[in-house]
Design a protein that fits this description.
91 residues; alpha+beta
Amino acid sequence: MFRSSSIHTVTEFCRKPAEHIRRLREHKRPELLTVNGKAAVVVQDAEIYEDMAELAQYAQSLRSIRQALSEEGRALDEFTAEFEAEHGIHR
């Protein structure tokens, strides 16, 4: 996922933050920042992050719909009866 040109040290990022921000905005690819040679954080353009967050939320809603439509779901009457029993609701 990360190209070698997108891997930098935190020290390098701190020395030239404007350069990194310009590159992030221009190329729209995240950068992996390392500490002592190990991955520490990922930095990315805010617009791309927002797009990614929206996609993640959409994927979660699809999973919920799939679960509701699959065999894992159950009849509303069954759920209601169990819920009422657990919460001491009597009709």
